[in-house]
Design goal:
Helix content is 28%, strand content 28%. It is of the alpha+beta class.
Length: 212
């Protein structure tokens, strides 16, 4: 047995330091990375949507009417004007928090229902599909309830901005394909329920104002 020389002692120190770092440094870091990976997987598998559902806002509900549609149940007038009318059960997104959440994290939207986004005035409206799990139709209406533009079959989880073709105050989101099924187009007008605040009512002609 002999005493270790200085170079040998340096090698031994490096060896033990390296072993210690691998044992308690690298592997602990690996454990952290494995935990983070597992957590991310759980989030993608549904933890975030579940949390979002728990925090879902309590949207007001009601019925809106779309007039001037052609859903195949009416033949229109002799001059070709569409005279159809459809009632749609909707949730109302009336403030910034509700408009921001919208239909995010919903796994389904019941047939014949939708969400109506209500803004304080007209403007170019832009919508995207971040965290939105279902394909949608987006219909834009101006302050008088007139049809402005339409985006059909917008795919879920996409970040492309879909804008109105002109100033809009109301945006109706429906299940993808509903706009085509209902025959929504340039002759369509939106009628809101009378219980909504008067200043948010579209400026409709008398003949289109719903009866109280």
């Amino acid at each position: 047995m002999r005493a270790a020389t200085l170079p040998e002692m340096s090698v031994k120190r490096w060896y033990w330091w390296h072993w210690w770092r691998l044992r308690f440094g690298l592997f602990s870091g690996l454990r952290v990375r494995l935990f983070l990976g597992l957590f991310s997987g759980l989030v993608l598998a549904g933890i975030v949507p579940t949390t979002a559902l728990e925090d879902r806002l309590d949207f007001a509900r009601g019925e809106i009417a779309l007039v001037g549609i052609n859903d195949g149940t009416n033949a229109g007038t002799k001059d070709g004007t569409k005279v159809g009318r459809a009632l749609i059960a909707v949730e109302f997104a009336r403030n910034e928090a509700e408009r921001r959440q919208g239909l995010m994290y919903r796994e389904e939207l019941a047939a014949g229902t939708g969400m109506l986004f209500i803004f304080a005035g007209e403007g170019t409206r832009s919508f995207w599909m971040k965290n939105t799990l279902i394909a949608l139709d987006m219909v834009f209406f101006d302050s008088s309830g007139w049809f402005v533009s339409l985006h059909r079959d917008v795919p879920p989880l996409t970040l492309v901005s879909r804008q109105s073709a002109g100033p809009a105050q109301f945006v109706l989101e429906l299940n993808a394909g509903e706009a085509k099924r209902l025959g929504i187009g340039p002759e369509t007008r939106l009628v809101l329920p009378v219980e909504l605040v008067p200043e948010l009512q579209p400026k409709l002609p008398v003949e289109l104002v719903p009866e109280k």
